[in-house]
Structures are given as C-alpha cells and as structure tokens.
What we know:
Blueprint: H1 2-8, H2 12-23, H3 25-28, E1 35-36, E2 43-45, E3 48-50, H4 52-69, H5 76-81, H6 84-104, H7 111-120, H8 133-142, H9 147-168, H10 175-186, E4 188-196, H11 209-218, E5 224-225, E6 228-236, H12 238-242, H13 249-265, E7 268-276, H14 279-290, H15 295-301, H16 306-309, E8 310-315, H17 316-323, H18 325-333, E9 343-345, E10 348-358, H19 364-396, H20 401-407, E11 413-418, H21 437-443, E12 455-456, E13 462-471, E14 474-475, H22 482-510, H23 515-518, E15 526-533, H24 543-549, E16 557-561, E17 568-577, H25 585-614, E18 617-620, H26 621-635
Parallel strand pairs: 1-18
Antiparallel strand pairs: 2-3, 2-18, 4-15, 4-17, 5-14, 6-11, 6-13, 7-8, 7-10, 9-10, 12-13, 16-17
Helix pairs in contact: 2-25, 4-6, 4-26, 6-9, 11-22, 13-19, 17-18
Amino acid sequence: MLQFFRNGLTSYFATALLGLLIASFALWGIGGDILGGAGSKVAEIGDDKLTLNEYAREFQNKFSEIQQQSNGEVTREMVIDQGLSRKWVADLVQGKAFAHAAHSLGVRVTDAQLREFIISVESFQDTLGEFSLATFESLAGYRGYTSGEFEEILRKDLERQYLMTSLVSAISVPNAVEKIFIKFLNEERAAEILTIPAFSIANISEPNESDLEQYYSNNRANYMAPEYRDIRFITLSIKNFVGDITVTDAEIDEAMGAAAKESVENEKRNFEQLLFDDKEAADKAYTDLSAGKTFNEIITATGSTIEDATVIGNAHQDALDLYGSSAADSIFAADQGAYTAPVETDFGWRIFNITKISAPTATKANLRQEAEDHLKTEKAIDLLYTKSELINDELAAGGSLADIAGNLNLKLNVALNIDAKGYNSKGDRLPNIPSDPIFLASAFETLEGDEPLLEEMGDGEYFLVVVDSIAEVALRPFEEIRTSVYDMWMADTRKRLAREQANEILTKAQDGESLADLATTDGGMGYTSVTLARNDQTEKVTRALQDSIFQLDIGRARIMPAADNNGFVIIKLVSRNHPDAPMTAAQSAQLKQLLTQEYQQRTLSNYWRYLEVNLPVIINERAVNAVHDQLDSREQ
C-alpha cells in the first residue's frame, strides 16, 4: 500500500487526490450547522480536537510562506479578509477528521513503514539523494515541531492517506457510463443563424429638440462631467539629480574593484564529485587519479554513476552551503579540467573534478561605465534623502509649496482642470503628471487648503501636492453635448428597432418557419447554417452561440446580443445527430481518467459529509478569532 501511494504521486490520480485535500472545504464547503461559538478549542472532531496552539502554528507557517512569495506585501488582515485563514482551519479540521476515522477503523502505520516513507521523501534528502537527518530536523523545526512531533504528524497523514486510497483506489468507470458520455461528446447539431445588425436599420425619423432633451434628461448619468481640479506639485526622483553629479576616477577605480570581486562571486561551476566514508579511501582514490586513472573510472568503481556524481551551475555560495568553506574554496580555486585534493565535509571526504567554469563576461569599458553609473545613482539617492529632510524642515516651519520650490531650487509644476485619471476637459493627458497612481489618488483625496505632505511613490520617488480649486461632478449643459446626445439617441433607436424586428422573426421561427425563409435582403440581415459537434474547436461560431445551440430543443429558437454589440443574432436548432465515431485509445483512456477522478471526488465528498455529521465536527469561530487577535497583538 505504501509503495502504491508513493508511486501514485506522479500519476493523475494522486494529483487529483492531493488536489482534493488541498482544496478541502473550498470544494466541499463547510456546513453552517457545524460552526460553534464558545470554548477554548478551535474545533472538536469527535473525541479529538484542534487546539489553539496547533492552529496558531499552522497560521504562522502558512502566513510566512505567503509573505515570502509576495515580498511582504500581504498582511494578516488581507489573509483573513480573503478567507484564506478559514480555509486553513478547514484543511486542519478535515485532515484530523480523516485521520480520526482511519485510526477508528484500525488503520495503522508501523515504525518500519514510517521510516521507509521518510527516507524516500526527496525534501528530506541531501544532494546525493541520501536521507539527511539534519535536513529532516531543520524542516521540522521550521514548521515549529520537534522531530518526534513531526514524525507523528507524518504517521497520521499516512494513515489518513491509506484510508482515502482504500476508499477510491478500486473505483472504476462502468463501460455503460463511458459509452453514454462518448455519445454525449460526439453529438452533432445543425442550426440556422440569422443576424440583424442595428447599424443597418435605415429610414429613422429625425428626432426633434423635445425628443433629444427628453433623452438627455432620462440618461443624465451618461452626461456627467467628472470632478476637475487645479493642482500645484513638486516631484523628486533620482533622475532629477543624477545628471548633475560627478564622480572621481579614484572612486570609479575603487568601485570597479568591488565589481570585479562580485563578478567572481557570480561565477558558476560544473563539477563531478567522489564521496568516501574516510580519509584513507579518499587518499587512495587521489593516488589512483595521480597515477592516470580517469575520474569516470573511479566514479564507476565506487558504485555510483556519472549522472549522480554531476553537479551543474553551482555558485560559490551554493558550494559553501552544501559542502562547507574548505570544499567551496577548493572547488573555486581549481582550474577547469583539474581535480581537487581530498576535502573533508560534513558527510565524508570528497574529491571534486571541475568540468566547466561559467564566468560573467564584461569589457573593462563596460565595467567602468557600470561602476560610474552605480556611483552616480548612490550619490543621487543620498542627495534625494537630504532634499527630503530639508523639505520636511521647511514644512515644519510652515513653508508654502512656492517657498519650498524657491529655497531648495526645485521645479514647481502646475496642472489645471485635470480629472482623477490625469486628463483635462478636452480629453488630453497632461504630460507632466506622474504616472504612478499613488500621485493622482493623493491629489484627489487632498482638500482645498490642506497643508502639503511629503509622500512617497514607487522606486523611491517623492512628491508634494496642493489643491487650488475643485470643480465638483456636474451635468454637462445640453447645448455643449447636443451632438453626442443625438448620436446616442440614434444608436439606441436603431437597437430598439432591431430588437423589435428580431422579436417578430423569433415568433415566426417558433411557429415553424425557417430562418432561411424569414431572412430578407433588406436591412443587411445575414443568414448562415452550421453543423457542430459538442466538442467542436473550429471556432465556426462564438463559444456563446455554440453553447446556446446545444441548449435548445429541436425547432426552438433564441435571440442573443451580437458579439460586437451591434444588433442581435437569432439561432434555431434544426436537427441532432449521434454519429458512431469511436474515440482513439488515447482519448478513451483520458476520458476514463477524468470520469474516475469525478467518481473519486464524489466518494470522498460523501464520506466527508458522513464524518461531519457522525463524529461530529464543530468549529469554534470565537477561538479562531482569538488566535488571530493574539497573533496580531504579538506582532504589534
């Protein structure tokens, strides 16, 4: 059974099974009746429980992972508001419920089975594929467990997996089900399609002024002018200062030395390695190499393979982390094609054969230019910081924006009559408006008379902004937009008439007339007929039309908006056919996999519902919130 589970990790079945576990209640839901509201336990699962500490530890682990992935941008509040914390509780509860059921049914994992599983997990192995106790203990500690606690968690996980595997591994899809599904997939339908474009509707009576004014009044929301503002602002960025900064040749030479050192650190090496239990064996191999034996011959003699002995693309830091400082220094001191003397590492004695050196390439001129640019950027950052401190001093002294610009030799920008997107009333984007959305957001949150504040945008840029006037959202005068009102009135009238025409045709089509007979050459109507399979990928029609065709009964019709929003489309189903088109062996196998996965999911879902009611499962929302509050108070 253990071997079945391990091997299955690479199969679609295990992927789906693990996916079900990960999705947990996100797929299956949490019954509203299992939420409690008192007590000190996060959840009760039969006579088992989920403690506050267990949930707090899981929350911290999951939250840390998310913060690493998002570079710290995700906060606890965001995790809770988006429902991730609720899912983490659900995952823990469901895991315990299945583990409880497995134990109650006598499912057990022996010490030997647990050991076999642990040493086979790649995450617990070193670079040579051997189990590493240090790695195992490190991962356990990272998750907040002792080695013994981590082993028991893995034991329960295996017992749970044994149970779930036993529930679903024997599921097979009946041939009758497969045949019905193949028939469903291969179904073909013939349909008529008639398009009625609105733009082709002609002979519309011209509206009078009263018509247009009524339309303008009924659609006031479409004719509102946005809020406009007059603002003044100062921006500071590195590019404002870097052009005026000079650096000396001595500074550049010093920076080039540091860059050269960094270039060496970025060098990467491919090598082969020999591992020995003791120095005596390593020295003998070194003597054999010196006597003319090849590295590959000795690799083979040790019972290893060239593939297992090969390491590709290791930087100095990589080698330092894997083998220690002595080995790393030896690897990066040796020439390409040479081998090192025996070096002692944490896991025995090693000899390394350097097969390739990949060093960053750069000309001296390029390095010099890069060093100069880097120095200028660093000095510009220092100057930017100094200017920002001076600005804060000016603000503290009550200085106006004009005073700050004059005293610190900064440009005072003006933008008149702009909206929240940086456009003026003519629809032109003002070129001097910063592109960072933080700027305009601040400009439209600031009120007239507010004192300026030094605020930061992305990439270390700063700004100050004051609002001189605000023109509130207002209805545009009819006279100013009469042309637009006229165009919209005409467009809506064409659309209304196209819909009326489509309704008339639909009624006749439902009564038995064909769309081909109902189509006319007047008005730009378009007629076509199609025959489609349910799984058709030819894109003869849009996906929405194809879906509608396979929803209709024979002889029935339907109106749909045109994909380009220009009028309407009428579709009518003419016939259905089920051709005898057997699938290929590969297609049949894939279909069976998908159907089996669906059966497995439903089986596990039903079993979960059974456990939820009969254990029972009770989640304590107050305790969950208490954990969140406690973690938040610790951080503060």
